[in-house]
Write a structure and sequence with these properties.
The two termini are 32 Å apart. By secondary structure, this protein is an alpha/beta fold.
Length: 458
């Protein structure tokens, strides 16, 4: 088992998103226009995050675009290829990538992430998603997207198969004894023989486990199905909230579901995504946020509003009439996001114009002086709204630099974040146990079962 990290310290990740996941982030001064396809930019970003002792960097991804997609979505590197390159230019920081279970086979996913895990010496993480964009079906030879409940049943089975494949070899399966000519101890290689609702996978996987056993499992769904998957199967959940109260309620819900599933109070880690804006004073930071939000193009805002509803065309509706009744639209897309938009639009009696601008802008609870932002982070952490945070994704590329330079020292002074790495695997950073190989555990159990009766007779 790996040594546990202090549970009273924050976990921090940094999203590396090239030119950003909003429509206008690419226009920020100092950000290369081709950052999303420049491996040098990603390597430099990961090295800066590692120098700041972040736990991991995080790559978001999706398999479908339209001409109205945000600039980063239009032209970006494939996450596992990207992180394999980053791995050889870093030593400690975790490397987490998004990959959908809906349009990938478990054997390929297991092999790809196991490869990244070995290349990085135990620093890989998989963000398990089911894909909320119906258009993705056409890119994978399907006429229709999987229904929401089917996607999550498939995801649960997919993840189970992948974890089974990761245990194909016990940790001492390869003696590589040149004197005896024994490369593999065949008794420690295990086929899977899985036959389920969605997958039939024989195994074994043709790659061994890394030092951390399995890559860390992240999950990013906020629907009922997503929450249940995270609570029962994920090591960490990537989420997002506009207020402390909303975040605290989500945190309680996830931990309660995990407890019912028999997991410890620390599982899974809850990590909201945030975009802190730091300035010399609270007033200056608020002004900076308003200036950025005031530059929103309404047509781009309407296009972005349509994405959770599978790129619904809102331009067909009058801008200054009430937000349209969309019925069940969005239920088979990014369900939790779509339902949240409809709920808030109804509660706040928003027009379509107001809704487009309301959800196009980022109104972060973490805006102010370095002390104000540090206070807010400490408040969320100490009062069980978060176990840590994932920073960045759409704002000014200098925002994380300001956070590292001005906020992080305050968090360290308060004993809330490390000054040096104490581990060199992602599980080590996050305080997660190394999963015991299931076949080795069964072997030990069988041996113990034969020893105990003999000892009783002695």
């Amino acid at each position: 088992m790996t040594q546990k990290n202090r549970s009273d310290q924050l976990k921090l990740g940094a999203i590396l998103a090239g030119v950003g996941t909003t429509q206008n982030a690419w226009r920020q001064p100092g950000l290369p226009g081709d950052a999303s396809i420049d491996i040098g930019w990603y390597i430099a970003g990961a090295q800066k995050a590692e120098a700041a002792r972040f736990d991991f960097v995080f790559i978001v991804d999706s398999p479908y675009i339209t001409p109205d997609s945000a600039p980063h979505f239009l032209n970006r590197l494939e996450p596992l290829t990207l992180l394999s390159a980053v791995a050889v230019h870093t030593k400690h920081i975790g490397l987490a990538a998004t990959l959908t279970t809906s349009y990938n086979e478990p054997f390929n996913v297991a092999r790809a992430f196991a490869s990244l895990d070995l290349i990085s010496h135990g620093r890989a993480g998989w963000n398990v998603v089911t894909t909320g964009l119906e258009g993705a079906a056409g890119n994978y030879g399907r006429d229709d997207h999987f229904p929401h409940d089917v996607r999550y049943r498939r995801a649960r089975e997919h993840l189970s198969v992948v974890r089974g494949l990761w245990d194909s070899y016990e940790d001492d399966a390869f003696p590589r004894d040149k004197q005896t000519g024994v490369f593999l101890d065949k008794s420690k290689q295990h086929a899977l023989h899985h036959k389920g609702e969605f997958f039939s996978v024989a195994g074994p996987l043709n790659i061994s486990r890394s030092r951390q056993g399995h890559p860390v499992i992240f999950q990013a769904g906020g629907s009922e199905d997503g929450r249940n998957l995270a609570a029962t199967s994920a090591d960490a959940i990537f989420t997002g909230h506009e207020s402390f109260e909303e975040a605290q309620a989500f945190y309680r819900d996830i931990k309660a579901r995990a407890a019912i599933a028999g997991r410890s109070n620390n599982e899974p880690l809850v990590l909201p995504g945030i975009s802190p804006i730091v300035a010399d004073t609270d007033e200056a930071a608020q002004t900076l946020q308003e200036e950025r939000n005031g530059k929103i193009d309404l047509q781009k805002a309407l296009a972005a509003l349509g994405r959770p509803f599978n790129y619904y065309d809102f331009s067909q509706h009058a801008l200054d009439e009430p937000f349209p009744d969309l019925g069940n639209r969005g239920a088979n897309g990014y369900r939790s996001h779509a339902e949240r938009i409809k709920r808030i639009a109804a509660e706040e009696k928003l027009t379509l114009r107001q809704a487009a601008l309301r959800f196009a802008v980022r109104r972060s609870p973490f805006v102010g002086s370095a002390v104000t932002v540090a206070d807010a982070i400490e408040h969320w952490f100490q009062n069980k709204a978060a176990d840590g945070f994932i920073l960045g994704g759409g704002g000014d590329p200098l925002d994380i630099d300001c956070f590292v330079a001005e906020v992080l020292p305050l968090l360290r002074e308060r004993g809330l974040f490390r000054s040096e790495y104490t581990h060199d695997t992602l599980r080590g950073h996050l305080g997660l146990e190394v999963p015991v190989n299931r076949h080795a555990a069964r072997r030990e159990s069988e041996i113990a079962a034969t020893i105990e009766p003999a000892a009783a007779l002695a």
